[in-house]
Write a structure and sequence with these properties.
This is DUF8198 domain-containing protein. With 235 residues, the protein is mainly α. 77% of the residues lie in helices and 0% in strands. It has one domain (23-226).
Length: 235
């Protein structure tokens, strides 16, 4: 079986999202994601602004928490699956495994955030600016408690994979040698998606430690939201 077979399932989940055919939902989705990214940056300001963490923080915001950036990547994943046998020859296996974890997280983020956007449209005018109280009420009503904890667990798992697979000098060298071939077969976005993980890790002692610090605070917020705390986003 192809090592990239799991990508096919992830792509199918992504293609089934309703916002692809609903421009009003798409707009609200991107607004909800923008609110979330601002909130994350505010919550984790100290962690994200440590010099060695800045690249990984950017990778988090731009890659793992969805948004318009993922739409272009999904188109390339669809193309890549048609040439899976070539991709598997030019991308190291452990890089593929780690890339799959990252793509899976991005798809899950899109699924959960689309639910948030749809609920916002049910309860508020489509042009009303999203604020903390709107989001608190929406998250409480949706009851994504278990799904959000699953998301954070997968993030911790990714942190372990980054430390285990992506710190090898041999692995990094092999991956860099694939760049020309990836460009030849027009897999640049997928290559860059994985490659940014390498670059982001370089200044860090441990990606797993950074991610765990992130997930601990995010878990606290999830629990506060679902316990009915009036100001769950203030850490």
């Amino acid at each position: 079986m192809s090592k990239l077979a799991a990508l096919d399932q992830l792509l199918e989940q992504y293609q089934q999202l309703s916002y692809h055919t609903d421009p009003i939902l798409e707009k609200r989705l991107h607004e909800a994601q923008d609110w979330l990214k601002v909130r994350i940056q505010k919550t984790h300001h100290d962690l994200f602004n440590q010099k060695e963490n800045q690249l990984m923080a950017k990778y988090f915001i731009n890659r793992l928490y969805g948004g318009p950036e993922f739409d272009d990547l999904a188109l390339q994943i669809e193309r890549l699956l048609k040439y899976a046998h070539k991709a598997e020859k030019i991308i190291p296996e452990n890089a593929i495994k780690t890339g799959l974890k990252s793509v899976g997280l991005a798809v899950l983020a899109m699924q959960l955030d689309e639910q948030v956007a749809a609920q916002l449209l049910q309860d508020y005018p489509a042009d009303q600016a999203i604020d903390d109280e709107m989001m608190r009420q929406t998250l409480l009503k949706l009851d994504q408690h278990d799904a959000r904890l699953e998301q954070l667990g997968l993030l911790d798992d990714l942190g372990g994979a980054l430390d285990k697979y992506m710190r090898s000098f041999i692995m990094h060298t092999a991956f860099k040698m694939c760049k020309g071939t990836a460009a030849k077969y027009k897999f640049e976005l997928m290559y860059d998606f994985i490659g940014e993980g390498f670059v982001a890790m370089k200044p860090m002692k441990s990606a797993a430690k950074f991610i765990h610090e992130f997930t601990v605070k995010e878990t606290e917020i999830v629990e506060k939201v679902h316990s009915g705390h009036p100001h769950p986003f203030e850490i």
